[in-house]
Amino acid sequence: MKEKELRRSLAVLPIGTVMKLTDLTARQIRYYEEQGLIIPERNEGNRRMYSLNNIDKLLEVKDYLAEGINMAGIKQIYAERAQEEAKRQAKREKSLTDADVRRILRDEFVAVSGLSKQNQFSFRNNGL
DNA sequence: CTTCTCACA
DNA sequence: TGTGAGTA
């Protein structure tokens, strides 16, 4: 499920192909890049190379534009989308630290009680 | 031939 | 956003 996403991110399409796939002019495609909506890579000859994800985003932008949304509006939509992703990322990190909290708490207890891990083991064997 | 940047009779 | 100029 991750190998697939990697392929979709591979920039292998020249602008000419993108034009046919999206029905957008080169001018528009470059303009949307200028607006930060997409960030195509560049090959050795400074030629823009697009990925399938870039195509999807361009088509998405095209739809928003068709719905009457302007550049500013589209930028806001992606800005909000980025913030929500940031929150999800923060939550994952928080849940991961929660797991670590137990380890930290346990180590703290061991230190305060003065019990080594080996002693804890022997205590258990003695039913304590 | 395709794409790039820059500019606007 | 279109388009032509001059390149790479």
UniProtKB/TrEMBL annotation:
<dbReference type="GO" id="GO:0003677">
    <property type="term" value="F:DNA binding"/>
</dbReference>
<protein>
    <submittedName>
        <fullName>MerR family transcriptional regulator</fullName>
    </submittedName>
</protein>
<keyword id="KW-0805">Transcription regulation</keyword>
<dbReference type="GO" id="GO:0003700">
    <property type="term" value="F:DNA-binding transcription factor activity"/>
</dbReference>
<dbReference type="Pfam" id="PF13411">
    <property type="entry name" value="MerR_1"/>
</dbReference>
<keyword id="KW-0238">DNA-binding</keyword>
<dbReference type="InterPro" id="IPR000551">
    <property type="entry name" value="MerR-type_HTH_dom"/>
</dbReference>
<keyword id="KW-0804">Transcription</keyword>
<dbReference type="InterPro" id="IPR009061">
    <property type="entry name" value="DNA-bd_dom_put_sf"/>
</dbReference>
<feature type="domain" description="HTH merR-type">
    <location>
        <begin position="12"/>
        <end position="80"/>
    </location>
</feature>
<dbReference type="InterPro" id="IPR047057">
    <property type="entry name" value="MerR_fam"/>
</dbReference>
<keyword id="KW-0678">Repressor</keyword>
